[in-house]
Each structure stands twice: as structure tokens, then as C-alpha cells.
Amino acid sequence: MSLQNIVLIVLVTSVILLALLLVLLSIVQRKLKGTQYQEQRRLKSLLPTRTKDKRWLEQAHKTYPVLDELPVIKKLLHRMRSRLTLIHAGNEIMIRSRAAALTLMIVACILLISLLSFLWTSSWVSRATIMLVSIYLGGILSDLFIGRLAKQMLYDQSSMILDIRHEYHQTHMVQVSLENSAERSKPMVAMHARQIAGILAAVDPEDELQRYYEVAPNRYMKQLAGVSYKIGEYGDADIHKGERSIYLSMLGNIREEIHMDINRRERIDRLLYGIVFVAVSPVFMLDPIRKWAESMFPIVTNYYNSAWGLYSLILLYITFIVSFVALRILKGVDEDTQAIKDEGKWLNRLLKNKWVYRVTDRITPEEHEPVHFKVAGVLKDANSGLSHHAYYLQKTLAAVGIFLLVVIIQFSIHVNIRHNLLHPNVLITTGGNQTESQKMLSEERYAFEQSLIGELVARDITPDQMLLYIQEQAEHKPFLQSSLDQNAYAQQLMNRVEQYHREYYKWYELLLAFGLAAAGFFLPDAYLIIRTQLRKWEMQNEVDGFNTLSMMLSQFPNISVYEIIEWLHRYSYIFERQLLRCMLDYEAGGWDAIEKLKEDARFVPLERLADRLQVAADLIPVKKAFDDMDAERAFAMDQRKEHYEKVISRKSTLGKMFGFLPMQATFTLYLLLPFVYMAFQQLGDLTVVTGKM
């Protein structure tokens, strides 16, 4: 059959199939236009449908009991649950579903990256590093997911407050406004609106309000609950007489605070978007970079396996750790209060052992010593929950851990160098543009040198005997050039044997380990200093919120200074402990308690607010103490926006610096320095050759 006939048959068959498809399409279209089919589609659209997200959450909810039985995963599950409880308070099904879904996602990420590490590299050090990075990425994913939920809740809260304002304009009743707005709001915040409405209808609303404060998702929902309770209990201003509604004014202020928080979170997320994955990527590049360099330039193997190369690799890992920790801190917007409460739990468990407590007590300063008060100030400034004994136990464990780690690394470096002397990279001898016969001779030479050096290392002979033995073994070997200087060749092999014997643990390495351990003892101090500095950036944000909150509360005619301090304590993350102490001391004297608050806080903007509270506590009414804040509000908001810009700009600069630091360190320490080493090595060989000419 000719080619023309085959093409004709294919064309005729295609035309027939196309005609059949057109006929079938016309029949289907006629049926779709029928009223019965249209009615079926309409009824089907009325049925509730489950999205993919809902189906996934249902499946995750079924796995919750299974995950709760697994030892390690159980802790991760409870950690996710405690963080999600603040967002979905009261909705147990949603808490379990999302906690299980998030736990499964993190575990899947860790397992997937860990399995890929076995395919990606053959080095166990690289595999262990990638596995640790997978755990870090799991924590980042949980932060991203929960941060997205928290941000979505802020958007929904803003819309809900707008609905409450609309309903309150019509009904002038707080409880009814909350209930009606809950019907129009998203489920995540509608549940909280119903809870607040239930507080107003309770038999003991004040007790229910205190319970809600413990489960409220954020400070803004606490403010909404407190304001709604105040208005529901004591009433609003008389709107019919032309007075401004206190409730509507406070709702507007709360919504403005939410918008500023949303903008701050959006800016930070946008500026630091993806920077974590840029910082993590060099970890996966180390092994491919080394394999490429060793295949193209075999001599760089000597650098990678030398002491300098191994110490540069350790420095690279330290750079990775510092960058990862710094990015994790910088991406945070507010402090994790649960983490602060859990801080030092395992240290306190260790302190229950009497021997551990006795050792720690010996290095912990006494209460009358000046160091004790200095450490107390540092812990207070960093908002740390550690006790003095727990803090010094942490410092001791850091020093001991670093000492043991350095000693292990030093022994590992000696073992690695010895192994490289016995088994150097074969491509150094057999590589290059060699013919097949030359390559075979080079392989024989490599096997001979490897066997001979291993034999000389095992035998205990003098250098003169070693020299004669090498010359005797190398005599009449076909893979050695006839023009080769036997004495120089023997001396070269002897140098490798002597270098092998010199690779033992030396006294100055022990001193280095002790020096690094001493530096590790002060590592927690450096962490607290960094934490204090980052906390100072957020102090102004919180005090600005204090000013707005105090201005709102001063509009209530029967408000007291103690109630304002109580509200500030509920609003606060950073000054929570100082405000709690002020509340406890207030009964003994308001003026002295607020004076103590100023001493504890040691922050000028908060001291100015405390001055107003002091005056309102003893001299003038609360409303007069804060009457000028409303007039200064516009200027204060401009100052606040400018402060936000500065903080966000600093975080962006530091985030980009730490984000690109691992890549720059990898390029310098793991790629540039080996090539510099290779260049100097070849320059030295060239000098030897020219010297003989």
C-alpha cells in the first residue's frame, strides 16, 4: 500500500469521527435544554456541598485520636492545639480538625524532606543537617498557617465591628446588635460575638466576662467584650440630647487599632516573604557544590578534608543556625505568651534533682549580691519567665554542651584528616587528560601508595629505615617514571606518614574547647540582650495602644484608675507582669503602686501615661486627666505610623541581611576558599618546577 493511500484513509476516518462527534454534541445539547434537566440542576445546586477544605478537615478530625496516641507527635499535636484554641475558642471540632491537619502537614513535610535527603546525598552529616532543617521548616509552616488564620480573624473582626455599628444605629441595644451581627459575620468571629452576647445575658456577667478573657483570641476581642459589658451594664451616653455615643466611638477606635495591626502584619509578611526559604536553600547545595568541585578540580579535596576546610564548614553551620534563629524571631509580630509561660519547664524539672540543684546553687549568686539584682533586671527587661536558678542552669548546660560538642568535633576532624591521608581522592592521581594506558598506570600507582602508607603507619620504624624501605619497594615499578627522583618521591610519602602521626589531640585544642565553653556560658546573656532590643521595638506599639485604650475608657463617667490598669493588663503582652504587680499593690496605695510601675517598666512613654494615672488617682477626675489626649490624637497617630515605618524598615533590613547571609557564607567558605587554596597549591608547584630549571 502506497503512502498516498494511507494518508487518504487517515483523513477519511478523521472526517467520519468528527461528524459522529458533532451529531453526539447536538443530541446532548437538546437534552440539556429540557426543563427536566434544568430542574434537576436547580435542585442539586440547593443541596449543601462540601468543599475540598472541609473534606480534608473531616478526614483530619478522624485521625486526631490516632495522633494523640503517638509519643512524639502527641506533643506537637498539643502544641498546635494550644495555639489554635485562642483562635477557635469554644469550637472543639474545628480545633481538633485544624490541629490534626496542621500536625499531619508538618510531619509529612519532615518525612518527605528526610526521605529526599537519602536520595540527595550520601553523607550522613548532610543528611542529619537536612533532617534538622526539615524540622525548622515544619515550625515555619505552622507559623505561616496560624499567622494567616490570625490575620484573617483580624479582617473578619473589622467587618464584624462594622456590622455591630450598623445594628447599634438601629436598635441602640448592645446584646441585640451583637446577636444580629453574628448572623452576618464569618463563622470564625461569629462564635465570639455570640459568646459576648451570652455574657450580657448571663446571671453573673462579670464572672462570665473574666472567663472569656482567658479564651479570647486577641486583645481586640477582649476590648470588644469589655466595652460591650460596660455599655450593657451602665448604659451609653444620651444620643437624643446630642451627646456622642461612647459605644460607637470605642468601636471606631478598636477598628482603627485592628487596621493598623493588619497593615503592620501585611507589611512585614510582604517584605520578608520567602526570605526563610532563601536562607534554607544553601543547606541543600553543600553536597552538590562539593561533588562538582571535586570532580572538576580534584585537588580541592585536600582543602575540604583539611583542618581549615572542616573548621570553615563548622563556621558555615554556625552561620546557618544564627540566621535561622534570627529570622524566626524577626518574623514574629507579637510575643507567644504560651511560649513565655512554658519557658524553663524542662529546666525546673532538672532542678528537682537534688544533685543538680546543689551544683546550680553554688554558681547562682545570693540574693544580697549585686549580681543577683543585675540578673533580675536583665530577665525583667527581656520578659523572661526563668528563675535565677533556672537561668544559671541554662548557662551551665550551654557551656558543658558546647565543650563536649567542640571536643567531639576536634576528634572527628583528626579522624577525617587521617582517613584522607590514607585514602586521598583518586582523581588527584588518575584525573586530567590522560590516555587509557596512562590512567591504568596511575590507578596502579594510587593502589601502591595507599597500601605502602598503610603499611608504614602500622609499622614502628625509624625515618632512615622508612626511607630505605620506600626506595626498596618503589624500585623497578612500571607505573613510576624512570626519570623520577627516588629520594624526593620517598620523602613525599614519608611526609604523609609523619603528617598522619602528627594528627593527635593537642593541648591547645583543649584550651580552645575551654575558651569556647566559657563563651558558651555567656551565650544566654547575648540571647537576652537581643531579645530585649527586639522587645524595645514593640514597646512603643503597645504603649500607643495603651494611650488609645485609656482615652476610650476615660469617657465612662464612673471609671476608676484601678479599672483602667486592669484593662491595660488585659491588653498587654510586654508589660503584663509589671501591670499585674501594680494591680496587686494598688490596694496598699494607688500613688505608690503606679510609682513602682514606672520603676519596673523603665520606659519613658509609659511613664508619661503613668503620670496621668497618678494624678487621676488622687487629685482630679479621670476624664480631666485624659481630656487633652483626644485633641492630640491626630498627631499621636502620625507619630505612631512613623514609628511603625521605622520598626518595619529595621526588621526588613535585618531580615534580608540574615536571609542572604547563608548563601553568601556558602559561596565564600565552601566555594571561593577552596579555589583560592587550589590556586596557591598550583602556584607552589609551579615555583618548585621553575626552581629546578
Explain what you see.
- It is a single chain.
- The protein is an all-alpha fold and about 700 residues long.
- It starts with a helix and ends with a helix.
- The protein has helices at about 5-30, 35-45, 50-65, 70-85, 90-120, 125-170, 175-185, 185-200, 205-215, 220-235, 245-270, 275-295, 300-305, 305-330, 335-340, 345-350, 355-365, 370-380, 390-420, 425-430, 435-460, 465-475, 485-500, 505-520, 525-555, 560-570, 575-585, 590-600, 605-620, 620-625, 635-690.
- It is extended and about 115 Å long.
- Helices cover about 80% and strands about 0% of the residues.
- The model is unreliable at about 690-693 (pLDDT under 50).
- It has 31 helices and no strands.
β-strand amount = under 5%
The rough form would be described as: extended
Helix content: over 70%
User: How many strand units?
Assistant: 0
| Structural class by secondary-structure content | mainly alpha
Number of helices: 31
For the sheet with most strands, the description reads: none
Radius of gyration: 36 Å
Low-confidence stretches: 688-693
Mean pLDDT: 78
Quote the distance from N terminus to C terminus: 78 Å
Descriptive tags:
single chain, 693 residues, mainly alpha, extended, disordered C terminus
Describe this structure in a few short sentences.
By secondary structure, the chain is mainly α. 81% of the residues lie in helices and 0% in strands. α6 runs antiparallel to α12 (275-296), α12 runs antiparallel to α14 and α21 crosses α23 (486-502).
Topology:
Elements: H1 3-32, H2 35-46, H3 52-67, H4 71-85, H5 92-120, H6 124-171, H7 174-184, H8 187-201, H9 205-215, H10 219-234, H11 246-271, H12 275-296, H13 300-304, H14 307-330, H15 337-342, H16 345-351, H17 354-363, H18 370-381, H19 388-422, H20 427-430, H21 436-458, H22 463-474, H23 486-502, H24 507-521, H25 523-553, H26 561-571, H27 576-585, H28 590-601, H29 604-618, H30 622-625, H31 633-692
